[in-house]
Amino acid sequence: MTDYSSLEMRVAVPGELNIVLDLMGEAASWLKSIGVDQWQGPFRVERIADGIAAGRVWFAEGKRGVDREVVGTITVDEFADMDFWTEADDLDSALYVHRMAVRREDAGRGIGAFMLEWAAKLGRDHGKSRLRLDANRDNTSLQRYYQRLGWQHVRTVYRSWRPSGALFELPLGPRGS
Fold first, then answer.
1. What pLDDT, in 10s, does the model give residues 79-133?
2. CA separation for the pair 119, 124 (Å, rounded)
3. Residues near 96 by beta carbon (within 8 Å), at least 6 away in sequence
């Protein structure tokens, strides 16, 4: 059993691409089983590998016995997906969350909230005023999850080639809060 009180974030390093792909693949299989068309196409492996090399991909780890185990992943960067966000959104004021996934056996135990809180702190530390993400338009339970955590729905954008487009942001308090 993983000790969730011991959760810590650490940056992914080259050679750990398969850990990210396994977490995302597990999440994609589960999403498909509940009828959500998210992450069903091939993963952008090169983009994920580039994110790891640039230090933008992170792992949540918890203690299992004497060892630490990866229980989730999140990518946080300054990349505003221009399919959804526009210059009018003050793009530089935010950090953006991508590809967040929690190991299925550890789901429902606050790991996603832990990673998002950590990302909010990272945003404040970088002088950003908000954290943003885009979610699948049809995954209303995920959208409600973000809202329960204090995220605000900005708008929903429809692009025929993308199932995502429900845009959310979390206002960030001042640095150190």
1. 999 999 999 999 999 999 999 999 999 999 999 999 999 999 999 999 999 999 9
2. 9
3. 76, 77, 78, 79, 80, 81, 131, 132, 133
Give the domain range for residue 150: 2-171
Q: Would 177 be classed as within a structural domain?
A: no
Does a structural domain hold residue 75? yes
Which tokens sit at 64?
């299992």
Evaluate whether residue 67 is within a structural domain. Answer: yes
Does residue 176 sit within a domain? no
Q: How many domains does the chain have?
A: 1
Is 0.85 topped by the overall pTM?
yes
Contact (Cβ atoms closer than 8 angstroms) between residue 23 and residue 48: no
